[in-house]
Amino acid sequence: MKLTIRRGTLREPGPDLARLPVAPDLTGINIAEGLRAAVAFASIVLLDLWLHWPPLLIMALAANLTCFCDIGGPIRPRLRALLAFAGLGGLFWGAFGVMEGHGPALVLPVALVVIFGCTFARVWGVPAQTVGNVLVVVLCLALDRALSVEQALVVTGMFWAGGLWAAFLTLVVWRLHPYRPAHAAIGGVWRGLSRLARDLRRLSTDPDSASLHDTGLAVWEAHARGHRRAVRDAIEAARTLVLDLARSRARLSERNARALIRLEAAEQLFGVMIALSDYLERATPAQRAEAARLLRLLPPMLKILSRAIRRDRPVDLRRIERALARAKPAPDADPAFRRMAGRILDRVRIGAKLSGPEDLAGSGGLAGAPAPPWRETVLQPLRANLTWSSANLRHAVRATVVAVPALAVTFWWPGPFTHWLTITVVLTMQPFYAATWQRALERIGGTVLGGVIGAVLAFYATSPVILALMMVPLSVIGFAARGVSYGTFIACLTPLIVVLVELVEPGHSSWEIVGMRALFTVLGGVVAVLAGLLLWPLWEPGRVRDALRTALQTHARYAEAVVAERLGEGPVAAAETAARAAGLASNNLEAALSRALQEPRRRGHSRIEAAMVADATLRRMAGRLAILRHEPEPAETEAVTWRAWREWLAGALAATASGDRLPPKPEGAESAAFGRIAAQVELLAATLKRAGIGGREAA
């Protein structure tokens, strides 16, 4: 069987770590965001067409840029980000407009300090990163023409007005659908579980997947790497949204409580499905046949739940109950499968009925978590990144240094298009080379495609009225595609920019605008890639070793927590937390591996291959540990054996991380379940030792 792997998306990177996840994700289309942007931006453009007052265009542009800063989520952090951008953006435009008349000797030092601060703001999270990026755009636009103090005051006031207008619309839209982001995120988790179940069904009926040779192992490794990574990322994204939503309200509302229950049920279902995948990989044909009915009915049930959660609509409980009854395994089925199937069906029922164990919503630590103090939120990331080993600090310094020649071009070659060079250079550069390379490809490709479309549209627009009217559908399309992929977003946004420039700079043809934008985008992309390659890069092999060591440590803690849970010596919540930490560590390892595979030098190629083997082995180990969680509690006579294996696993994984010799296995403690995990640990240790990973080099 030939293993075919499709290209991944940003939400679902896929199993092939060497392929860039640039495929469009159509589930990211957001018509509401597009309509909001159209009202915020195009309405003011149309008003300017009627009143013919140029400052209105500044207000329209400010509203447009403010929409860029809105990444969704609970309303309070969203409004903080939007108001911060509106306030700083107005000040930047007015101040740099006045300074521009005094020449580069004054402007350049101040601009470089601002660019450093804006690019370093990513240490405080995605909202701060987004605001910082768009503030760089404001700075570059402000340097297009000098302003008097009176003009600067007008520009600042109109910018504030545009930002407040966009923030007001955000508040209005949020009031209409305050829980939509959380519902969409949790629905995405259940949709990911549906895809995981559908792929399990495919593998369970594929004869090649039953092979214990390379082909069979490869398909199961691809399944684990592709689906577990995507579902875990979706769970963490939904967790962040739900926690932020809970913290933004004085009390836990009924709808927020339902969101917590559904998310916790989904995470527990995810753990059981990991165990089921490990079971099916080694199942006999008869055991796979027993699971066929469950695997046939489970994906559509999960898809129905996903759709109902996303749309905030009730579930047809009778339909779900009929499907659950049909999916129940036969009484004479394998006991291990019956236990897993029962837990799967229980979690699906909880997700549908929103009822279950009283501690379900709180067992994962989701409910009632207090917000961290603001000093910790602000100062801790700052302290952690004020070191040269920080990728974020190097990125900010790199962006600042490369911005010097780009800004110099703006001064020496003034015009309405040169700011695109600095904007492209700064926004294309990312902390890691692989991310910069991907961003450059998507930005250049999207700009060329969107520019051609925009030029054709502007060519057939015979009057400013038609150009202004085009802003409405182009704004809707551009912002609605924001979540599809970065390349698609740029391709849909560029026609709006071309038409806007054609409207405000009527002396230039649409093809000239497209040509200049393409020129500066390609040039800026090349400069960004070269800067990431040459200026203080942090190559991934070293970071892969760190991520691998963390993954080994978290899996050791997971093994200890599972054994403690089964022996009654530890709470269920501890095992859930350890499972989550192990999954996140594997995701971080795979992200580092993916970046390493995109690097041109491919340093330490053999070690990267060994780390990929280790990643697959850790995924298998997590599957075996998940199965242990659903085994019957060990008898008193077996407890000593379990404790011995717990000590051995902790010591063996610690020795593997440090490159030391594995401790001897427990004598007289034979166990089929632990013997399989021990074989995986031995394979892991041998692979890493051959590649020279561990010990001092891994430290």
From TrEMBL:
Residue ranges of every copy of the Integral membrane bound transporter domain listed in the record: 406-530
InterPro entries reported in the protein's UniProt record: Memb_transporter_dom
Keyword line: Cell membrane, Membrane, Transmembrane, Transmembrane helix
Transmembrane region(s): 50-69, 81-99, 105-124, 131-147, 153-174, 396-413, 448-472, 484-504, 516-539
Coiled coil feature spans: none
Membrane topology reported for the UniProt record: Multi-pass membrane protein
Keyword Membrane on entry: yes
One GO location term (cellular component): plasma membrane
Entry-linked PANTHER family: MULTIDRUG RESISTANCE PROTEIN MDTO, P-HYDROXYBENZOIC ACID EFFLUX PUMP SUBUNIT-RELATED
Family (UniProt): Belongs to the YccS/YhfK family.
Protein name in UniProt: FUSC family protein
The species this protein was found in: Methylobacterium terricola
